[in-house]
Specification:
By secondary structure, this protein is an alpha/beta fold. The protein has ten helices and seven strands. The longest helix has 16 residues.
Length: about 240
């Protein structure tokens, strides 16, 4: 049975979608069957990060409103993918999306719901289908505070098994006390750490092209460790 995760953040720009893409790809390389679903209505980007932007014809909104069959919305690949609608419709509810996901989840090991930033309607729609949460933050006060708020909302919605990923981590600003350290991020959010992704400028280019960073890049090594930890293996939290 698939484990269904919502990937959330309180604030935009923390690399939530990049994490979803990287973690999905790495789990696929570990021979796990993965489905990534973009839930950011109107602002979807996960198709670009996965290299599927020229393959999207239908989205999950088309399934809910009866414009296509459910199989038509799933783009098959190393990581299967479903796009978010381009605009909002009152038919798009958490219950409707959950019903669709429940009808296709058999055969997958992991399903990741890439939620929009913040804690609005799109966040609630995505959360309705999730059992687990991954909260993403960068190590600064503003993002950590908003991440903590998103975790509170997930708890209210019944998602209590949440893990923290600290993204774009850089040691020098932390030493100079310009950014929070790892322990401070954990303490402020109150969430158990899943892993740390270092600042990797190669990843920025990959986000534009949809091509994964090289296997020896710092971010790819971090995604590998995250994937291993999600599957239950004991590996270090932080890239060496």
């Amino acid at each position: 049975m698939a484990k269904i995760y919502i990937v959330a953040s309180g604030k935009g720009g923390v690399g939530k979608s990049t994490l979803t893409a990287g973690l999905s790809r790495m789990l696929s390389e570990l021979n796990k069957k993965v489905l990534a679903i973009d839930c950011d209505i109107g602002l979807r980007s996960l198709d670009i990060l996965l290299g599927y932007d020229d393959k999207v014809v239908f989205d999950w909104g088309d399934v809910i409103t009866g414009r296509c069959q459910k199989e038509d919305a799933v783009i098959k690949g190393d990581v299967d993918f479903i796009a978010a609608p381009r605009s909002y419709d009152e038919a798009y509810t958490g219950e409707a999306l959950k019903e669709f996901i429940d009808s296709i989840k058999i055969g997958y090991d992991y399903i990741f719901l890439d939620a929009p930033a913040g804690i609005g309607t799109g966040f609630n729609i995505a959360a309705a289908s999730a059992e687990y949460g991954i909260a993403v933050t960068t190590p600064d006060n503003v993002c950590v505070r908003s991440c903590q708020r998103a975790c509170e909302e997930l708890n209210k919605l019944g998602i209590n098994d949440i893990r923290l990923v600290i993204n774009m981590f850089e040691a020098k600003p932390v030493v100079k006390k310009k950014l929070l350290n790892i322990d401070e991020c954990i303490d402020e959010t109150g969430v158990q750490l899943l892993g740390v992704i270092p600042l990797d400028r190669i990843l920025a280019f990959a986000s534009v092209t949809g091509v994964a960073p090289g296997e020896f890049s710092a971010s790819e090594q971090a995604f590998y460790r995250l994937a291993k930890r999600i599957t239950g293996e004991r590996v270090p939290l932080v890239c060496e």
